[in-house]
Design goal:
The complex is a heterodimer of chains A (166) and B (167).
Chain A lengths: L4 E2 L3 E4 L6 H8 L13 H17 L4 E6 L4 E8 L8 E6 L8 H14 L8 E4 L4 H9 L3 E2 L12 E4 L5
Antiparallel strand pairs in A: 1-2, 2-3, 3-4, 4-5, 6-8, 7-8
Chain B lengths: L5 E2 L3 E4 L6 H8 L13 H18 L3 E6 L4 E9 L8 E6 L8 H16 L4 E6 L4 H9 L3 E2 L11 E6 L3
Antiparallel strand pairs in B: 1-2, 2-3, 3-4, 4-5, 6-8, 7-8
Classes of the chains: A alpha+beta (166), B alpha+beta (167).
Chain lengths: 166, 167
């Protein structure tokens, strides 16, 4: 039910409990500034569980990014907790692995899975307008800013919208 | 881990579904959750709901919704909980307003306890209970749980009732 996706350099797999400690360490760093962070382990647990549970509740959720040697380096997810107007494509990568194109590679695979086998008809990324690195990823994936889209809790976040391939 | 479905005389214990969330959130944001260290809003209830679900893939155990077969109504949940703050695996239960007094929680807790001992490499389970929660204390005692004053609770004031695998 939870897919395993393979790209040239990565394997995207279901989370296991061993992922929680490195995920928590990541959320505690300043790298989560645009995710409202840094966050403590209780928030980490809530997000970790919410993103996993959505596989069972909605049929989509988070996948762990791993190098071919098994190293866990980040996460890409399609999630829609109750406050999200639409399914969101999101991502994070741990500090030593940024700038290497891993996020673009992984998020492309997840986008294609979501619009393809999963059959979603709409997907966006909610991105802080100051988060230029994530905006660059979204635009590399073909997303465009949708100034009219609803946002979670009516927050003033940017909504980058993905188009299904024709 | 495939989440199991368990059957008792009167009940079906089954995996959570998205459409269970509204009733779960009503319970968790109500006064009925006052013994659960909760004080949750709807977003907090979502965190608990999804943690209950995510236990199954992460730990191989978790929570199940309780349906009453005769009327097809969902009346609450029973769960095996660990999370990141519980020293041991906990057997817990919660019923929605209006369904107490029929023995449903006991029937559900017996079924999940027995499933746990039959399936998991555990010799004991515990129930962490607020000292003022007389109904849950009685239920733990009906299950055969025994007070354990030596174990460490997640919250300092909690009572611990220990359930042992049948000999």
């Amino acid at each position: 039910m939870i897919p395993t996706l393979h790209t040239e350099r990565l394997t995207l797999r279901a989370h296991v409990m061993e992922d929680f400690a490195p995920y928590t360490a990541f959320l505690a760093t300043g790298r989560t500034l645009y995710m409202g962070g840094p966050h403590d382990d209780r928030t980490a647990w809530s997000w970790f569980c919410s993103d996993i549970a959505q596989w069972h509740l909605l049929g989509f959720g988070s996948l762990a990014l791993t190098l071919k040697n098994g190293t866990f380096i980040g996460q890409v997810n399609v999630i829609q907790p109750p406050i999200f107007p639409e399914p969101e494509l999101g991502w994070c990568v741990f500090a030593p692995y940024e700038g290497l194109g891993y996020i673009t590679e992984a998020a492309t695979a997840v986008r294609d899975w979501a619009f393809g086998p999963r059959g979603l008809t709409t997907m966006v990324s909610y991105i802080d307008p100051a988060n230029t690195r994530s905006i660059n990823v979204a635009e590399r994936l073909g997303a465009t800013l949708d100034p009219y889209a609803a946002t979670p809790n009516n927050d003033p976040t940017g909504v980058w919208r993905y188009a299904r391939a024709a | 881990m495939i989440t199991p479905t368990l059957h008792t005389d009167r009940l079906t214990l089954r995996p959570y579904r998205l459409d269970d969330f509204d009733a779960y959130a009503v319970l968790m944001t109500s006064d009925r959750a006052k013994y659960m260290q909760a004080g949750l809003d709807r977003e907090g209830a979502w965190n608990w709901f999804t943690a209950d679900v995510a236990h199954w893939p992460l730990f191989g155990f978790g929570s199940l919704m309780i349906d009453v077969d005769a009327v097809g109504e969902t009346i609450g949940a029973v769960g095996l909980n660990k999370g990141i703050n519980f020293p041991e695996t906990e057997l817990g239960w919660q019923l929605y307003d209006g369904y107490e007094g029929h023995g449903y929680a006991t029937e559900a807790a017996v079924a999940l306890r027995d499933w746990g001992f039959a399936t998991l490499p555990l010799e004991t389970l515990v129930s962490y209970i607020d000292p003022a929660n007389a109904a849950s204390i009685r239920l733990a005692e009906r299950l055969g749980g025994k007070r354990d004053t030596s174990a460490i609770p997640p919250y300092p004031c909690d009572l611990i009732y220990r359930h042992r695998r049948a000999a």
